[in-house]
Amino acid sequence: xxxxxxxxxxxxxxxxxxxxxxxxxxxxxxxxxxxxxxxxxxxxxxxxxxxxxxxxxxxxxxxxxxxxxxxxxxxxxxxxxxxxxxxxxxxxxxxxxxxxxxxxxxxxxxxxxxxxxxxxxxxxxxxxxxxxxxxxxxxxxxxxxxxxxxxxxxxxxxxxxxxxxxxxxxxxxxxxxxxxxxxxxxxxxxxxxxxxxxxxxxxxxxxxxxxxxxxxxxxxxxxxxxxxxxxxxxxxxxxxxxxxxxxxxxxxxxxxxxxxxxxxxxxxxxxxxxxxxxxxxxxxxxxxxxxxxxxxxxxxxxxxxxxxxxxxxxxxxxxxxxxxxxxxxxxxxxxxxxxxxxxxxxxxxxxxxxxxxxxxxxxxxxxxxxxxxxxxxxxxxxxxxxxxxxxxxxxxxxxxxxxxxxxxxxxxxxxxxxxxxxxxxxxxxxxxxxxx
Amino acid sequence: xxxxxxxxxxxxxxxxxxxxxxxxxxxxxxxxxxxxxxxxxxxxxxxxxxxxxxxxxxxxxxxxxxxxxxxxxxxxxxxxxxxxxxxxxxxxxxxxxxxxxxxxxxxxxxxxxxxxxxxxxxxxxxxxxxxxxxxxxxxxxxxxxxxxxxxxxxxxxxxxxxxxxxxxxxx
Lengths: 436, 171
Known about the structure:
The complex is a heterodimer of chains A (436) and B (171). Chain A has 436 residues and is α+β, with helices and mostly antiparallel strands. Chain A has a domain at 252-398: 2-Layer Sandwich (Dna Ligase, domain 1), CATH 3.30.1490. Helices cover 38% and strands 18% of the residues of chain A. Chain A is built from 16 helices and 13 strands. Chain A has helices at residues 21-29, 52-56, 65-71, 82-97, 119-122, 126-141, 153-162, 176-181, 193-201, 207-211, 215-221, 224-233, 265-285, 318-332, 362-383, 394-398; strands spanning 13-18, 38-40, 49-50, 76-78, 103-107, 110-114, 145-150, 168-170, 252-262, 288-299, 304-315, 339-347, 350-351. In chain A, β2 and β3 (49-50) form a beta hairpin. In chain A, α4 packs antiparallel against α6 (126-141) and α13 (265-285) packs antiparallel against α14. The longest helix of chain A is centred in the last third of the chain and has 22 residues, at 362-383. Chain B is an alpha+beta fold and 171 residues long. Chain B folds into two domains: 4-53, no CATH class; 74-167, Umud Fragment, subunit A (Ribbon), CATH 2.10.109.10. In chain B, the strands form two sheets. A six-stranded antiparallel beta sheet of chain B has the order 3-4-8-5-6-7, with no helix packed on it. Chain B has a two-stranded antiparallel sheet with strand order 1-2. The chains are: A alpha+beta (436), B alpha+beta (171). The A-B interface holds A 29, 31-32, 34, 91, 94-95, 136, 139-142, 415, 417-419, 426, 428-436 and B 80-91, 93, 102, 104-107, 109-110, 120, 122, 125-129, 160-161, 169, 171.
């Protein structure tokens, strides 16, 4: 078979993926759960992450609690402890950054890293560097990661998936065709069902068949992103890494489910107000202001009803947003429906700045709000989130987000250390269970 | 050294007596001395610069530089931040080593335990805290309490972490 390219690693990109990340975070801190089927996502009523034991018994992502119990009665179903997962995720990226500063935090449980040029300073070849990163991660976080090394992101993703869990796969450019020949084209990152269907019309079934298509043909029939995927499948480096920790956002989204579903407009509005407050906390943290707000209500039938609201000026304060949202809420809310979630998306984000003087005292008002929220944020820093909240979201704060078994909160929020409060805990992951 | 009358002129005293008294004071403090023939000569403290205290002026406070050499309690207790975990002790098996129920431990994952280290091991699907002992090739776990027998692993001994610090917070 003819290779697609003759070079090995013109660029050395690794993709690293935590194996069953959330479930692994749970298993690694509770020996009781090791070797057992573990599912997280209880509070959402669906499987968010499954351990390999649970996957083997047929539990799939998004499966509802009743179905999980049917296919796997012995499954341990836990509420998500995002605080712990986030702490471990940060450690994951910090460990990779020991080796290279060029890390793209792709999601909470995966990242890309560029190792190009590090062979000499680290006195190792690329495969050895990738192996060392994996060894550090596995040892220090207490569960396994899958690592793929390749000349670009698309192929690195193929490599990390090649031998999951705990895989370490290197695909040098020269060997690329051997891997692609065995890979169905729909398994390639970025190729969805529509593209797969189109490719099948031309009898293209493997990634290699796609990679071997003539360039003018690919350019003619596919849009730019697919042409770029084609280039990467041929060993070129096209997709750059978005390195650096997240320092800005294009949109800020907050969605929260609650149980039981509610037909009470005051309660649903309070839930929405709480989301707006949370979104504003994030906006203020990154010094952003929004000028367009999308709100939506999700019914029990999983149907979303939304509205887009343009604000007269950029803001980062929930008071302003609620002022515009409340008149829009009434027409959106249908008393006949039962709602299970609300959400808000802040978009058209700009840097927050109140220097511009105006004729109508808007600057003064904004300065006052800014002072007020500076204090609110200080209180939050000191005493925890929602120490001070708007009256509009009172009903959402009054009771737990979920009733019944979905109301189970993570153990870590109950098993407090001396001096910790329900609102503020040490930022160090904890080993759970009896220590004798 | 100037004479008493010259001192009076410089300092602005009307009488030589006042100048004499000033000189006497200087003699007492060792700023001046009398030589063998009684002539005034500079004493041991004549060139010394007295330090009366510090005055805050436009110079940067030296405090920041001094504090650069101090560390936070976090830094003191934690060597490898990414590998450090916390846990709460329930049992009494390490009382002899001063580790009591309710104590918090800072433990480090991913390090090779050495003989004598206090470790967190996984025994029968539970965490246990014990001394790690190594005798030749054999390894076992030992409690610091007479009621607990040493644990000799039948299979592979799973050491999850090594204890780096004990924290006991009152009130």
